[in-house]
Amino acid sequence: MYSYRPLAGLLLLPTLALADLPRFEPEPGQHAQVQQQGEGYFLQQPDGTRLELSIPEGNDAEPPSFAVEDYDFDGHPDLAIRVPAGMVNSAYHVYLYRPTLRRFEHLQIPPALMERVNCSWLSELRPNSEERALYSHCRSGPRWYYDAYRFAESGAPWLYKTLQVRHDYDPQAPVFFPVFEKTLDPQGNIIASRALDDDDQPYTWTVPTSRLHLHTRPAEASRGKAYLIEGDVCEVLDQQGNWLLIRYVSRKGPLQRWVSLDEAYAQAQP
């Protein structure tokens, strides 16, 4: 675990005011310092070079602020530049430290990833050390959305989690879950899914009928012998039309199956 090492009496805080341009050690004995020249900002790097910093576009009336934190979880502190963007959002540029080069590189999100995310720029960054993931949050309308990035050994970012919003609302459907968190692997394949409420908590669904058969896939032909009973509480993992993928914790352990909403609510009718 790295530690911040204040230099020349400067106390480094998570976010620094304009007058407190950070000076820090990305690794022991290697110094880096943010400098201002006119309206521009530069980073004096450990390898002796001077890097012009790119300031995000945002509210022109407010100066940028700086944060020093390990954003890619490699054990070395990195540099982030933040500017307000609108009423509640912000925009970030991040410079990751490369110890083999003794200099920083501007973090660029590949265009292919940007097509899949909710936030069109890095915003309200929150590193999650337990998941080793960098979360970017942005607000649209009444809700906050997020995308989470992990980093390959090469240092390249890949999309780890994102929220997907469904726009196929059917007023005839007995229940509808609009937002799902999708977890992906480094190749971009979805490996997990779950429905979330407005507070980003997992949605649950209660079986409304006396007996509801479980299916291995969203098709009648996949019906098995196992069933749930009225009052059983399930976590909602996915929805395809009038089919729900649920996770139910039984006495024998958790199971993941599909259930038919047509069957559930047809039997529930008086």
Automatic annotation (TrEMBL):
Instruction: Say which domain of life the source belongs to.
Output: Bacteria
Kindly state which keywords UniProt assigns to this record, in alphabetical order: Signal
InterPro entries for this protein = FG-GAP, XAC2610_dom
The name on file for this protein is: SH3 domain-containing protein
The answer to whether keyword Translocase applies is no
Transmembrane residue ranges: none
Pfam families assigned to the protein according to its UniProt record, in alphabetical order: FG-GAP
Q: Which residues does UniProt assign to the signal peptide? A: 1-19
Has the keyword Signal been applied to this entry? yes
